[in-house]
Description:
- This protein is α/β, with parallel strands linked by helices.
- It is 30% helix and 25% strand.
- It has a four-stranded mixed sheet with strand order 24-25-1-26. It has a four-stranded mixed sheet with strand order 2-17-19-18, covered by helices on one side. A four-stranded mixed sheet has the order 5-6-4-16, covered by helices on one side.
- A hairpin with a 5-residue loop joins β13 and β14 (214-218).
Amino acid sequence: xxxxxxxxxxxxxxxxxxxxxxxxxxxxxxxxxxxxxxxxxxxxxxxxxxxxxxxxxxxxxxxxxxxxxxxxxxxxxxxxxxxxxxxxxxxxxxxxxxxxxxxxxxxxxxxxxxxxxxxxxxxxxxxxxxxxxxxxxxxxxxxxxxxxxxxxxxxxxxxxxxxxxxxxxxxxxxxxxxxxxxxxxxxxxxxxxxxxxxxxxxxxxxxxxxxxxxxxxxxxxxxxxxxxxxxxxxxxxxxxxxxxxxxxxxxxxxxxxxxxxxxxxxxxxxxxxxxxxxxxxxxxxxxxxxxxxxxxxxxxxxxxxxxxxxxxxxxxxxxxxxxxxxxxxxxxxxxxxxxxxxxxxxxxxxxxxxxxxxxxxxxxxxxxxxxxxxxxxxxxxxxxxxxxxxxxxxxxxxxxxxxxxxxxxxxxxxxxxxxxxxxxxxxxxxxxxxxxxxxx
Length: 440
């Protein structure tokens, strides 16, 4: 079994460059289905497991794709099928994002019920509500969802009961080829929504209001391929900012965009961390005692749920008691038990965790229970006494490009250990990735 081994206590120094945003590139690749003419080229697409999966989904539909040097080239002129199979979609729930583009382009789509991280229930009812409002007929059965529409989807006013990122993206993509105007109310406001809208507009769509609570889409007859660069990953950037803070170090996070990380920056400053922004990235310096601070996760522009576990790692070594309130997903405290194996003091009551600070963390054998929990365990291990062994790396690989090499480049004592039998199973090319995977 592959594992990451971290020996804590090392200071960090230097620069880490942030990769393209995983949560932006996935819907952008899915949106390429909409282009009946030309080719799309998507730059800054990180070589992550999730990117590999969405590429495989599109290939299974008959699209032509290639990946080289962090760029994906997509030709969607010929689509052979409207069905995305269980074998692929079960691996990642973002695969469901192909339903909107397929329905808009072909008038039909058949998608397996999605999989992905085990973070509570993340229903797709808001997606289906939007499709039905635009005239689609929905059938559920045998683990698949089938959507059909006669001729074209029709523009509609759609109010989302919750500001779902995935539903906003899926409906927005479907609406680009609909007849008339679609208005999405209570839309998600994340930077990744804005990035998708920019890509859709480059393809010939007319999308206005992305980044606000109301998005207006004027349907067009046809869309074409476009060239687009994905925004930097704000969650990866935030993770490395906390790496600097937790180790009492100074790091420059290249590519980090301050406006995308305002609540994280605010909390770091509240805890006594120096944060300095410029046009190319963010400098983080932690040379003063860390103070406790409470966080409450909220949809953007609130504190991101994807940074909750990483911030909890920092709270463990701050002076005083901190509260963590998780309002976005239930069952997102699975990392607490792993932290406690490292001598952490945390009490959980429903959606609230009470984190006692000033912990002297100790190395232990722990397991990543989901993507961000894995990152949080690495952060805690950076300051733990002794050696920490982390398994469950398939979760971490879904969202971080070779996190071991990135941290080692700035001074961390961290390595990835791959058993010989697993090493022999790794091909020189994995699917579309024309590069050797970066196993450390």
